[in-house]
Design a protein that fits this description.
alpha/beta; Rossmann fold; TIM Barrel; 2 domains; seven-stranded mixed beta sheet; 16 helices; about 35% helix; about 20% strand; globular; binds cobalamin
């Protein structure tokens, strides 16, 4: 079958940081191995996204089009949506290739499968969650598919969404083959983000109140074998010249020992690469921080989210301020940059908690000022997503009601602390400026 895989627009503007579409790349490889003729188009690096899509549809005349919706919106307190370009792409596909089946998937799709299938009749099927097994199986019998994990389809006026696949990742994860597109398209576009992602595991067992990761990848940590992870890094580095990676795991240094083993293997193979990822603070210690640095860590991304103990507790982080500061202390003594993400105006905010939060930010800046190794501090209001405990909490507090449309950006930011973010950003930007000038 001729299959076109399309990566829908993931950011609001062409100048934004690019991310190589790892999920689509895995699926393209598997479909080719299953004998399909596959073409791929990433609208994010296409010079003329819709013109290029139209030309590809006309030239390749696919029988099936798979469309990946990674992001529904850009987060970061912004109110723009990535649904309009997704809708435009669907309409273009349906107009140019009316006989082709459209199958949707990706993280953005997986957060709103019912809503998107109802709103967009152009979509024939969807798959929520990971699709390594279900997409090839769906294409093997597209007219009468069996009840596959994650499959979404219409039954009369109803949309049926099957439970997503959660099999041990080592059973089906393919070794990477060729790259989908020229790596330079991604590398040259970016200033901060390493565009090439590598997974060491799937799943997240923490259960923070606002977070959809357990919905997307399950609560159980499903690790890839260490050698497979390092094989990916080695191949991408040696064959394609890629020197910098982002490990895409929700929490990179969990479970204890897995990242340490990967680092030991990177060092054993003498791979001269750089990498980054999101670290859990209470799993960083004197014994592993140096190993991470030696193995190429170029940025410790922390997302403690809570600026004081009450916030950490209400967000369900299962973390203490002491652990956040201990991790900051350890990271600040290295030659590696650190980036911190915090959420502002969380449920239960008061004048006192604002001061506590400011105190924590000041301490973090003081620690990192010595070696000037604080990349930045990112301050966000919380995007409310369906199916999370925050959505119920926000409903109970009256911040949203049953009619609130969560498909489009809705942030938890009730009065009277709705402008707190600007106060904290003023502090953060002033501290940043003076830190880099060494004052
Ligand atoms: C790692 C990551 C990042 C890294 C990426 C680094 C890199 N080089 O890859 C960084 C930190 C840079 C990042 C940035 C952003 N991210 Co991000 N990111 C993730 C994360 C944790 C993992 C994504 C990943 O690579 N997974 C591994 C791949 C293999 O899985 P996958 O993409 O899901 O693909 C599978 C399935 O979805 C499915 N599938 C995928 N495509 C298709 C297509 C079809 C047809 C089918 C059937 C199935 C299918 O099958 C695939 C294989 O199983 C997810 C959350 C999560 N746990 O999933 C958020 C997530 C995707 N990010 C999100 C967002 C919003 C962003 C940013 C906009 C945030 C920001 N303001 O900076 C940017 C956008 C960057 C961009 N250009 O797209 C959101 C998207 C939801 C939303 N609100 O829109 C998520 C879900 C996190 C969240 N907060 O909810 N991100």
């Amino acid at each position: 079958m001729r299959v076109l895989m399309v990566q829908s627009l993931s950011t609001e503007g062409f100048g934004q940081e690019k991310v190589y579409p790892l999920g689509s790349a895995i699926l393209v490889g598997l479909l080719e191995r299953a004998g399909h003729e596959v073409a791929f188009l990433d609208l994010n690096v296409a010079p003329d996204p819709f013109g290029d899509l139209s030309r590809t549809l006309n030239d390749f005349h696919p029988e099936t089009v798979g469309i990946s919706l990674r992001n529904i919106d850009p987060l970061a307190n912004k109110t723009s949506s990535l649904i309009p370009p997704f809708a435009a792409a669907l309409q273009l596909i349906a107009t140019r290739r009316p006989q082709a089946r459209i199958i949707a998937g990706g993280t953005g799709f997986s957060l709103f499968p019912r809503r998107l299938l109802r709103e967009f009749p152009q979509i024939s099927y969807g798959i929520v969650g990971e699709a390594e097994v279900s997409l090839p199986a769906l294409l093997a019998s597209p007219d009468h598919p069996p009840s596959l994990p994650g499959l979404c389809h219409r039954q009369g006026t109803r949309v049926v969404v099957n439970r997503p696949a959660r099999r041990p990742i080592r059973e089906y994860y393919p070794a990477p083959t060729k790259l989908l597109t020229d790596p330079a398209l991604y590398i040259q576009a970016n200033r901060y983000v390493a565009p090439f992602g590598v997974e060491t595991k799937r799943g997240c067992n923490i259960g923070c109140v606002y977070c959809p990761y357990p919905l997307l990848q399950g609560k159980k940590l499903r690790c890839r074998p260490v050698a497979h992870v390092v094989d990916d890094l080695e191949l991408l580095h040696k064959e394609h010249g890629i020197g910098s990676f982002h490990f895409t795991d929700p929490v990179l240094n969990a479970p204890p020992g897995h990242l340490e083993a990967i680092c030991t293997e990177i060092l054993r193979r003498k791979l001269s690469i750089k990498w980054s990822g999101f670290f859990r603070e209470d799993l960083l210690h004197e014994g592993n921080v140096g190993l991470f640095e030696r193995a190429g860590c170029e940025c410790f991304s922390f997302s403690p989210d809570g600026l004081y103990q009450g916030a950490l507790d209400v967000l369900g982080k299962r973390l203490s301020v002491a652990s956040v500061l201990q991790a900051a202390r350890l990271a600040s003594r290295t030659g590696v940059l650190s980036v911190y993400h915090f959420m502002v105006n969380v449920p239960g905010e008061s004048d006192d908690t604002c001061l506590e939060g400011i105190g924590l930010l000041e301490t973090i800046y003081e620690l990192h000022a010595v070696r000037k190794n604080l990349g930045t501090v990112v301050l966000n209001n919380i995007r409310i997503l369906p199916g999370t405990r925050l959505a119920s909490l926000a409903r109970a507090h009256g911040a949203i009601n049953g009619d609130t449309d969560l498909l489009y950006p809705v942030y938890y930011n009730p009065k009277p602390f709705d402008t707190l973010r600007y106060r904290l950003e003023t502090l953060q930007q002033t501290k940043n400026a003076f830190m880099w000038m060494g004052e």
